[in-house]
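Subject: Protein record for review, amino acid sequence with backbone structure tokens
Why sent: The fold of this protein is of interest and is recorded here as tokens.
Enclosed: The protein record, placed directly beneath this head.
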Amino acid sequence: MLCFIRIARLASVAAAAIVMAWAAQPGTARAAGWIEKGIYLSGPNYDGDVPPCEAALGEITSRFESTQARFWNTNVQILGYEKVRQIAYSPWAKGTVPRRFCTAVADVSTGRKHLVSYFITEGGGMIGATWGVTFCVAGFDQSMAYSPACKMARP
């Protein structure tokens, strides 16, 4: 039994060494594969495949409404958006996680308009399988996670 455990450990170490050697081949530029993205070994190999600013608006609307109802006990909703625009794309050093920074003006059910600052991240969704969105609606950052005035959600 002890011999079997040693063989299993040796096999797993050998498999890990092979995968690491394959992933770190010098001089080969390639996008991160599903294995790398799936087990958080993505490194600097990103595709730069980040959807346009408009693609995240539905997700923002849904999550904003859910957060307001669930945590703050209000029925405030985003009714629509205007002036949607990109303000930056991957503003940091080469090889960092690609992000598209955007702003929009949201028409909120309170009758007022609020600035929405958000960014879309490649591999930022559930377990890194898709893109993810992080957002802040000015005036509704009750937890002050992006204070002051949603500045921390911008580049």
